[in-house]
Fold this sequence. Notes:
The chain is α/β, with parallel strands linked by helices. The protein contains ten helices and seven strands. The relative contact order is 0.11. Mean pLDDT is 83; it is low at 310-324.
Amino acid sequence: MANELDISIVVPLFNEDESLGELHAWIKKVCDENQYKYEVLFIDDGSSDNSWQVISSLAKDHSEVVGIQFNRNYGKSAALNVGFKNATGNVVITMDADLQDSPDEIPGLYNKIINENYDLVSGWKKKRFDPIMKTIPSKFFNLVARKFSGIYLNDFNCGLKAYKNEVIKAIDVYGEMHRYIPFLAKGKGYDKIGEQIVQHQARKYGTTKFGLERFIFGFLDLLSISFVSKFRKRPMHFFGSLGTISFLFGTVITFFLIGKKIYELQTMQMARDIVDQPLFFLALVAIIIGMQLFLAGFIGEMMIQSSPQKENEYLIKSKINDNA
């Protein structure tokens, strides 16, 4: 059965009290003009300014406003995850609270989900009003993200995105994984992912809450999610492959040294003791590492098999002839 609301707009925020009233008025204007049934979820990520007071005032005067406050700053991923769990609209749209994301984009994103049946649509800030120290690393970051994920988006980090409700209910956003929600969705089988050019506004109030370190953390998160998405169900494939290569490398070197020693003895050459050769210790280390990698793979497989929640990780889209 379809949800009663057309749209849930999730707005994570941290110390954005100056922009919240203006942002809400802008969202309300756009949604009312298009006759949407909607809600606006403001997720206060432990702000130390008056953000929560502003949200409380908006919620008192406007029934569509929902406010959720964290007791401390947990990060954007946590705010989005809580917003997703509480969103009830058929389409869920996320945007930042600093007015750099334009609510005028809401109808276009909504139509792509409803009329073109996309699972997820990501905004692309093709023309940006950010300093070069932010735009150049961002371009490189997006290039690497495309190569790793196989998802050809131009702006993974754009806060303006739209989702089917079922998509955001199927994923958990944790750590700093908000940059890779398309990757998480694809891993759950929602691979109809689109992109829409959106208008980027110059920041009107306050300052950015993210520094250049986000790119370093972003690359580490990309490596993590790439590994987990590929080998989570079959850790032995990863650890076993590396273990096999390492073990065979060490074994081949060991047999080579033994064969060389036998040959030198038979031909009356000066034969050097095997244990006196550095190559022997390299082979020994390779064999030991290979065995440890095998053990890591076996332990990983055992943990998966004994996990009581492993069956819940598979999403069933539909059933027919279900007589249970």
